[in-house]
Every structure is written in C-alpha cells, then in structure tokens.
C-alpha cells in the first residue's frame, strides 16, 4: 500500500475528527459528504451497507463506519489510521478536561451545568433512537420492559441479560420479514483473518473477567472494564453511559464527576466513546487514559475485521436481522432508564435546574443549535443557578 494512500486516509479522518460535532447520526452525514461525495472512495450502495453492518455490531457505529472505510481504502492499517485521526482530537481534549478537574481548576458550578446538559442530550438521543429503533407496538413494549427491568435490577449483568432476551423476542416476532440484499465489498483480507479476529475478540471477552480476581492490578481492571463495555454496547455512544456508570461509580469516582465528563463529551467533536479518555485519566492518570481508550475501541476493530468478510452472508439472514430489531428496542429502554438514573437524579436538584434542562432540550430539538453551543450556554446557566442556590 502506498504511503500517499495512508497519508490521504489520515488527513481525511483527522479533518473529520476536528469538525464532526453532533453525535453519531451527524457523523454519518459528514462521512458520506467526505468519503462518498467529495473523495468518491465508495458509492452510496456500499456506504449504506457499511452503515447497516456497523448498526448490526456492538460498539460506536460512526467510528466503525470510519474504520471500515479506512480498511476498504488501505487494509487493516488504513482502518487504524482512519480511527486514529477521527478519535484522537476529542480524546486529547477530554484528557485535558479531566486534568483540570483533578487539579481543582474547574469550578463546581460549571460541573453542575455540564450535568444539566447531559439531561437534555440524553433526552434528545432517546427521542431520535425511539423513532428509528422502536417504531411499532411490539418494540415499544420491549423498550418499556427493558427500562423497567434495568431500573429494578441495576447491575451490568442485568443489562446484558435484557439485551440477550430482547434478541430472542425479536427473532420470534420478526423472523418472517425479508432481509435486504447485500453489496459485495472488496477487501485486502479474507475469512481466515476474520475468524482469527473473532477468536481474539471472544477470548478477551471471556478471559479478562475470569483472570481479574487473580491479578491485583488497577490497570488490568481498567482494561477489563472498558473492553467489556466496548464489546456489548449496542445502539451507539449514548448507551455507553449506563454501562460505564455501573462499573466506575462509586468505586473509582463520584457520580458528579462521571456525569460532568459525559456533559463535556458533548462539547467536543468525534465519537462519544472518547469519554473513556476522561474516565481513564481520573482513574489512573495518563496510562489509565491510554489503556481505557485502547480497550474501549479494540472490540470495534476486531468485530469489523471479523465481520466484513462474512457480511454478504449475514446480511441476507432474516433471523439475524429479526434478533437485531429486538436488541435495538431493548437499547432504547436501557437509555430511558439511564435518563432517570444516573442522569436526572444527579443533575436536577431544584426547579431551576429542570427549567435549564428544558431550555437546553428546546435548543437542541426545536432550534437545532449545534451541541457545543448548547453545552456552553447550559454550562453558563447551570453555573449561575449553582452560585445562587
């Protein structure tokens, strides 16, 4: 592969990493404009199929689409460069924010404002995801049941159980629906590489938690936590919130610090999974941040490499698509539960807080302001309300 190709991939992805505000749906729009319309690296049909693949896989959909396009363009190393350029700008910004918080250089009023932002952002994400992932009565019922189950059994294992059960229900209800045709994707690696990637993915997912009681290391614990969460999060970045919260609060940090980091993540471009950099920095400094980011995104790499060679087969299986419909509905329910606890319960203390959250929600949903602008305005208002109260 020519060095110029690698340079081209890194340049394009870094540009997107510096300018892609607005969450995963907006990212996919930016990607299409850059890779399909401007650079013509692939056509709309192939792009739509990559988006479908990454919605099918657990992990950050927009990052996985970028990784996939990088792999089509420049092999596995091209996929790494595409991820690096898109992800690193926001990772660096969030690590710097964590350092400010740790040094006491960030006023608690601002942190309270960022927590209020999170209420509006999660509510906005829930609205959009509900329309696309739970559009009919069976899936709405699944979402509500999932929310109730997660609230009543607030553990990481309960969330995994809810997702698996929803997949079974989805298969039973939707298995007779036809699956769409797949587009053939040209790759530099084949099915043997795919099988190896799946083997590594499964080995780490099972092996890391089994060995954790035997290895007394905070760094090992960080890698295990973030790898596991990155492996089982369906539905995009916002769903990472409840799963990570169960793992790191209160053992590693307070709920206030956790939610303020989530609010800050809305103000930076790139994928929401870069919240791992902020959390890792708070947990164990620079090395903790590096391990958290690597562990969070490693499953995405392995899953993309493992699935791309088999995608044309998987895409045409109606049973797989049916199960995924159930899983996605459950994801909406898990996010609904997270909107209440920990987001709402930790941010809304007095009526003024709720008024600010409603204002922020209106700015996002009805006035269509950019998320970073909403974050700044809400953080200011929240800091003011905190100072008065």
TrEMBL record:
GO molecular function: chromate transmembrane transporter activity
Location of this chain's protein in the cell: Cell membrane
Main location as per UniProt: membrane
Gene Ontology CC, one term: plasma membrane
Superkingdom in the source lineage: Bacteria
Membrane topology recorded in Swiss-Prot or TrEMBL: Multi-pass membrane protein
UniProt entry keywords in alphabetical sequence: Cell membrane, Membrane, Transmembrane, Transmembrane helix
Membership in a protein family: Belongs to the chromate ion transporter (CHR) (TC 2.A.51) family.
Protein name, UniProt field: Chromate transport protein
Encoding gene (name): chrA_2
């Amino acid at each position: 592969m020519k060095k110029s190709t690698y340079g081209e991939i890194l340049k394009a992805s870094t540009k997107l990493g510096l300018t892609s505000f607005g969450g995963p749906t907006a990212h996919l729009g930016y990607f299409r404009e850059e890779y399909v319309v401007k650079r013509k690296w692939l056509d709309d049909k192939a792009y739509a199929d990559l988006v479908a693949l990454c919605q099918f896989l657990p992990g950050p959909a927009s990052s996985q689409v970028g990784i996939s396009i990088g792999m089509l363009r420049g092999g596995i190393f091209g996929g790494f460069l595409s991820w690096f350029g898109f992800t690193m700008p926001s990772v660096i910004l969030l690590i710097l924010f964590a350092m400010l918080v740790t040094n006491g250089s960030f006023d608690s009023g601002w942190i309270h404002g960022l927590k209020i932002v999170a209420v509006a952002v999660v509510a906005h994400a829930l609205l959009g995801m509900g329309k696309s992932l739970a559009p009919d009565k069976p899936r709405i019922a699944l979402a509500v049941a999932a929310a109730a189950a997660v609230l009543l059994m607030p553990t990481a294992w309960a969330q995994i159980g809810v997702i698996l059960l929803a997949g079974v229900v989805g298969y039973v209800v939707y298995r007779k629906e036809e699956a769409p045709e797949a587009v053939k994707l040209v790759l530099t690696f084949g099915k043997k590489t795919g099988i190896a990637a799946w083997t590594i993915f499964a080995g780490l997912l099972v092996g890391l938690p089994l060995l954790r009681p035997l290895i007394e290391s905070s760094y090992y614990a960080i890698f295990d936590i973030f790898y596991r969460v990155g492996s089982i999060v369906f539905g995009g970045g916002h769903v990472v919130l409840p799963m990570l919260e169960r793992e790191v609060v209160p053992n590693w940090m307070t709920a206030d610090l956790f939610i303020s980091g989530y609010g800050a993540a809305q103000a930076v471009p790139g994928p929401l999974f870069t919240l791992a950099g902020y959390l890792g920095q708070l947990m164990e400094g620079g090395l903790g941040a590096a391990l958290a980011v690597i562990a969070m995104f490693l499953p995405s790499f392995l899953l993309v490499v493992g699935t791309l060679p088999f995608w044309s087969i998987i895409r045409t299986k109606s049973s797989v698509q049916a199960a995924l419909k159930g899983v996605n509905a459950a994801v909406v329910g898990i996010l609904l539960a997270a909107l209440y606890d920990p987001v709402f319960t930790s941010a809304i203390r007095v009526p003024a807080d709720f008024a600010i959250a409603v204002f922020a929600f209106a700015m996002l949903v009805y006035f269509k302001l950019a998320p970073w602008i909403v974050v700044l305005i809400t953080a200011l208002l929240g800091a003011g309300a905190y100072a008065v109260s």
